[in-house]
Design a protein that fits this description.
This protein is mainly alpha-helical and 276 residues long. It has 12 helices and no strands. The protein has a single domain, classed as MetI-like (MetI-like fold).
Length: 276
């Protein structure tokens, strides 16, 4: 037994090291490539560390207003998606938690089933709908679609959180003169804060990283998000690799801040919503 355990220890350590290298290497490659001059990108043999360090790729990003516009578009789309998901998921989760609904379990299962549909099969219907509703190439269409991608799991998560809050607390608030909506906002929501933060983070990350629908449903820099702008840098005969990596590193910065300051709430939200 001891020999088996002693043998598993080094193997487990080696597995952890391999996973760590595979996870960290792409980040380090992107970081150093963003600081490499264009003339050193294709030297043989290839080198990770640049011979001459430069900030020109970052300067090129800030000199082109289109790239800055892509950043702004991503912030608007991700922010709108987060707000809409919080409102709709809170109302839906509260309704499933507090009210009697015919075939509630069937409806909840159907909502979760929507999470299993591959997004690519929805491209054509969404494109036709956006054209018919005259919202093609607007913030609205991307906010609505990105919200739809996150809502199923968000409703389930918040429903489980609301189940853990005693109904007597909101009843007491309503006896004191609050409406049901006021009780939800001022009494129930603060107690379900970890779940709300987890939903907000999932919605923001989904909208920030989404590319497929943005590529099909937008066609102008005034609306397209950052992922669309990155794709434009990949030409048929030339790829501005250092600029691509510079934009990538800048795009990761908001996500890094989110995980630094809200990681604890995200873990509590996901684990807390796993059951009563």
């Amino acid at each position: 037994m001891r020999a088996g355990r002693s043998a598993r220890g080094p193997l487990f350590g080696l597995l952890v090291v391999v996973i760590l290298v595979l996870s960290v290497f792409p980040v380090l490659y992107a970081f150093f490539t963003a600081l490499t001059p264009a003339r050193e990108l294709f030297v043989l043999p290839p080198k990770i560390l640049p011979r001459h360090w430069t900030l020109d790729p970052y300067g090129a990003v800030f000199q082109h207003r289109e790239y800055l516009r892509y950043f702004l578009n991503s912030l608007v789309i991700a922010g709108g998606t987060t707000a809409l998901c919080l409102i709709l998921a809170s109302l839906a989760g509260y309704g499933f938690s507090r009210f009697w609904i015919p075939a509630k379990r069937v409806v909840l299962a159907a909502i979760l089933l929507l999470e299993m549909f591959p997004g690519v099969i929805l491209l054509t219907p969404y494109y036709r709908l956006s054209q018919d509703l005259h919202i093609y190439d607007t913030y609205i269409v991307l906010v609505l679609i990105d919200s739809g991608l996150v809502l199923p799991i968000s409703i389930w998560l918040l429903k489980n959180f609301f189940d853990t809050v005693p109904a007597s607390m909101e009843e007491s608030a309503m006896m004191d003169g609050s409406s049901r909506l006021q009780a939800l906002v001022y009494v129930i929501a603060p107690l379900a804060r970890p779940g709300l933060i987890a939903v907000a983070i999932m919605a923001f990350l989904t909208a920030w990283n989404e590319f497929m629908f943005a590529l099909i449903l937008t066609n102008s820099p005034t609306v397209s998000p950052l992922t669309y702008g990155l794709a434009e840098l990949f030409g048929q005969y030339n790829v501005q690799r250092n600029i691509v990596m510079a934009i990538t590193m800048l795009s990761v910065f908001p996500l890094l801040l989110i995980f630094i300051f809200l990681q604890r709430h995200l873990v509590r939200g996901i684990m807390g919503g796993s059951g009563k």
